[in-house]
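Here is one chain, start to finish.
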Amino acid sequence: MRIIEKGKRDKKQEPGFWSGLLQPVLLELKKGRSVPELALAITMGAAWGVFPVIGTSTVILILLTSLLRLNHPTVQVFNYLVYPLQVLFLIPFVRIGYLLSPGKFPGLTIEAVRDIFDDSWRGAIMSLADILLHGILGWFVVILPLSLAIYHIFRLLLKKYKHLKKNGI
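Its structure:
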C-alpha cells in the first residue's frame, strides 16, 4: 500500500487528460481489436461529431456503429470530444456550401433569423432547411479528405503503440 503525504497527490493514480481519454481505446487494442478497426472508429466519431445538424450525430453514429460493427464507446468518446468544433464549424460549413452552389449566403444574425420567423413559419423552416443543406454540402466536401488524414494518422499511431507494447517498451 502506498502512503501519500498529506496535501500531496498521487500522480500514478490520476491519469492526465489525454491518457484518460485514450485509455478506453488502448484497452480495446489490448483486448485484440484491430488497429484499422479502432482507427476507423476514431475517424467516424470525429467526422460525424462535427456534422452541421446539431443533435443528430449521436443517433447517426449509433446506427453506423451497429451497421459497421464498430466499437461504440470509442466512436462516442471522439464524437463528444469534437462537439465544440461542431458549433465552431457550423457557419464555415454553411459558407463553403454556398460557395459550391448557386445562392447567396444569408446573414446569419439573431435579428435575421427572428425576421425570417416573423414573416412566416413555413418560410422560416424552408430557409433554415436550405441553410442546413448548404452546411451539409460544405461538411461533406471538407470531411472526406480530412477523414482520410485522421484515419491514417491514428492508424499509424495505434500501430506504433501496439509495436512498442509488444516489444515491452
